[in-house]
Amino acid sequence: MEDSITREQLFLRQEVLDTIRAFMREKGVPESFYDKITSGTGACENVPTVYQINDPHNFSLLSQTDQLYMEAQIIRLGLSSLYTAGRSFRKEPRAGDGRHLSEFTLLEFEAVDMDLEGLLNFQEELLNKVIEEGLESEHIPEKHKDRLRKFLENGYKRVTYTEIVNKLSDGGVSINWGDDLSSRDEEAICLLCGGPTQVTHYPEEIKFFNMYRTQRDTLGDLHRIQKEEETDTTTVDCVDFLLPWAGETFGGSRREELYSVLTAKLLRGEMFKQMQKAREESGYKYDQDATLEAFNWYLELFKDKEITRSGFGLGMGRLVQFLQGSTRVVSF
Question: Among 54, 187, 207, 318, which residue has the least CB neighbours within 10 Å?
């Protein structure tokens, strides 16, 4: 809520956004803007959290992400990269718990000719810039600047999901491979690793449909990829950048490049099933083709060409929370 914002947070929000925009300009990355009323392609992987709009003519919702539209715009305009800072709307049952918001600013970045390694480097460079500028800010407590300075000097750890799940399990945490990380898990990981940590290669089954499958030799043909039992230990080239106090703040991945794989993963994924259910509950009859049609414009981009690309979404409220060392996410 805006009425909970302090004077320091008000000015720090502006400084952080200015810093990121200056960083993007230096990199030659243009800013774009997108509609906030979208079709199913504006949803993240957890469809039950979308705000649906009462429209008798179209299945519409308030946007959660601009990712697919950004990918399309980069390809259509022949750009190398793009970013946006827009509102994201989540029907979040945990809103108000100090960690989640029902509406917030999501900064998103997409680039072609970038693999996961390039994405990890870009995220670290961006965070370094934000911390460096933050150390000059009068709106961050001096006692907290020492901790930020130490993070900057020590660098950031990188660890795979499998490695960190094993470490947590060995330390007595009740967690199994395939579970999503809880906020407590993320807090423990930052403590174990001594600061901001990039966790990579999560299980494919718990991530967005268009993330790049790591094990390329398991792709097979369209029929084979649809077999659920073959994906038990499959991972994707993705990353969650965990920050102390805030937890997951960046979430990104390399994007899948093969049309057949994109289509198969979409059709067999939980998100697609949830989307069909949401359409039915809105009064539309069950129609898999109609649900798929909402994504066809995106899938068609890759029908005749493979394009290496990566991107991330950054929760600005959690970034400010991290900079201030706050126990609660900052409204942004």
Answer: 54
